[in-house]
Amino acid sequence: MLRTFPQTRDLSQSKRLMGIAVFTIITIIAARLKIPMDPVPFTMQPFAVLLAGMILGSRDGALSQAVYVGLIALGLPFDANMRGTVALFGATGGYLIGFVVAAGVVGLLVERAGSRFWQQWLAGIVGVVVIYIFGIYVLKNVAAMDWNAAWTAGVSPFIAWDMLKAVIAAAIAEGGRRLLGRFLNPTS
């Protein structure tokens, strides 16, 4: 069985919080790695979300993304377009909310799946689909688009790239767990 980053039994509360903070920061940085597109920019955020779920697990992966979204809700310009709270109510708000759910779902699937690469990749694909479901629904309604236009603007340009992000996340998840473990337990 594939294990995610050790949960409460193996890791102190402070170290779990540090892991959550690390992935919140990674997601903030991933928002800056973007190609501007309208209405949805291409960013590395889905990669950070998938990796958070794969490495931290369901609970802590989702918490890392909830903290990220919470910081945006407080008005900090950590979203891709640097709009702060406004981003949560705009065309890309659904993607941001989807990050929390996707990290949780990916983490849950990885916790329950085997350690095979393809299982981790499939968990990543499910996470991408979760992000798309939340994103396209809000995009359609906020931008007053029909489903076809929302799909064309908010999903189809990203599918191939997001599948690649899922492959890379699955490929580096185990090494990422070890690296984070060394960072949080330097004496081990």
Report the sheet with the most strands, covering strand number, pairing sense and barrel closure.
2 strands, antiparallel
- Beta-strand portion reads under 5%
β-strand number:
2
Question: Which topology does CATH recognise?
Answer: Arp2/3 complex 21 kDa subunit ARPC3
Low-pLDDT stretches are: none
Q: Explain this structure to me?
A:
The structure is a single chain. With 188 residues, this protein is mainly α. It has a single domain, classed as Orthogonal Bundle (Arp2/3 complex 21 kDa subunit ARPC3), CATH 1.10.1760. The chain is 70% helix and 2% strand. It is built from eight helices and two strands. A two-stranded antiparallel ribbon has the order 1-2. Strand 1 and strand 2 form a beta hairpin. Helix 1 packs across helix 3 and helix 2 runs antiparallel to helix 3. The radius of gyration is 16 Å and the shape is globular.
Give the arrangement of secondary structure elements.
Layout: H1 13-32, E1 34-35, E2 42-43, H2 45-56, H3 58-73, H4 85-88, H5 93-112, H6 117-142, H7 147-154, H8 159-184
Antiparallel strand pairs: 1-2
Helix pairs in contact: 1-2, 1-3, 2-3, 2-5, 2-6, 2-8, 3-5, 5-6, 6-7, 6-8
Features:
188 residues; mainly alpha; two-stranded antiparallel ribbon; 70% helix
Task: Summarize, please.
With 188 residues, this protein is mainly alpha-helical. It is built from eight helices and two strands, in the order H-E-E-H-H-H-H-H-H-H.
